[in-house]
Amino acid sequence: MSLKTILAAAAFALAVQPAVAETVKIGVTPGPHAEILEQVKPIAHEKGLDIEIVEFSDYVVPNAALDSGELDANSFQHEPYLVNEIDKRGYKISKVASTVTFPIGIYSKKIKAIGELRDGAAVGIPNDPTNGGRVLLLLQSAGLIKLADGVGLKPSVADITENPKKLEIVELDAAQLPRSLDDTDISAINTNYAVEAGLDPAKDAILREAADGPYVNIIAVQTARKDEPWVKTLVESYHTDAVKQFLAERFKGAVIASW
């Protein structure tokens, strides 16, 4: 075999070798966000992007890990929460895509309807400003409390101006709220933690947020990296009909595609 033939054969062999996939670490919370990313993984792999899913048990660490470079992206939060974290902590993080909406729900082991809530009832809500605020707005929509005018999307307990039932508002870490149901009369639980605890948001919630609100979840990356090619590949892999079909079949209205 001539040298020319050997070189040509080597060149052909290199040409047919599959390209090495780029690997990115994406932070999620357990439950729906992790399950959805598992569906995105094979789609992204076909496009040359391998996803390593990293689970976090709270809402604080994933943004800190992203800002420090320990993660390449995260997918666990709605946009108002990210905006609040950026304002508070100075993160250089940007939204690159909308993903899904998780209407927050109120659950109880003691009552079957919100109208049965007794005077002086204990009400568990998330202790972060955005999720706690959205629950207060939900309680106001049900006529249980009244908030000060102009509070926007982040009212606090201090903004309650009327509380005719003298409800006791108990602020807890969002991940702890499913376990609080034995001690509270009602608790507001984010969908990912509700599903993880075996609750069915579409059936078990006695009061539920509207699906068309401002709390659409997002994919976030470091601002300096938002135009890197892998980001586009990740978003394209998420925004597919296959993922929409999975959401409809797996979550049956508890998690809603918002792209």
Report on this structure:
This protein is globular. Helix 2 packs across helix 8 and helix 2 runs antiparallel to helix 9. It has helices at 3-16, 32-46, 61-68, 79-89, 129-141, 191-196, 201-204, 229-238, 241-251, and strands at 22-28, 49-55, 73-78, 93-101, 105-107, 122-126, 146-147, 160-162, 168-172, 186-189, 207-208, 216-222, 256-257. The chain is an alpha/beta fold and 259 residues long. The strands form 3 sheets. A 6-stranded mixed β-sheet has the order 2-1-3-12-4-13, sandwiched between helices. Strands 9-6-10-5-11 form a 5-stranded mixed β-sheet. The termini are far apart. The chain has 9 helices and 13 strands.
Keyphrases for this structure?
259 residues, alpha/beta, 6-stranded mixed beta sheet, 9 helices, 13 strands, 36% helix, 24% strand
How do the strands and helices of this protein lay out in sequence?
Blueprint: H1 3-16, E1 22-28, H2 32-46, E2 49-55, H3 61-68, E3 73-78, H4 79-89, E4 93-101, E5 105-107, E6 122-126, H5 129-141, E7 146-147, E8 160-162, E9 168-172, E10 186-189, H6 191-196, H7 201-204, E11 207-208, E12 216-222, H8 229-238, H9 241-251, E13 256-257
Parallel strand pairs: 1-2, 1-3, 6-9, 6-10
Antiparallel strand pairs: 3-12, 4-12, 4-13, 5-10, 5-11, 7-8
Helix pairs in contact: 2-8, 2-9
Return the string of H and E elements: HEHEHEHEEEHEEEEHHEEHHE
Bin the strand percentage: 15-25%
The tally of beta strands, per DSSP, is 13
Instruction: Calculate the mean pLDDT score and round it.
Output: 92
- Class by helix and strand content? alpha/beta
Low-confidence stretches: 13-18
Shape category: globular
Instruction: State the share of residues found in helices, binned by percent.
Output: 25-40%
Q: Radius of gyration, rounded?
A: 22 Å
Q: Order of strands side by side in the largest beta sheet?
A: 2-1-3-12-4-13
Largest sheet: 6 strands, mixed
How many helices? The count is 9
First-residue to last-residue Cα separation: 57 Å
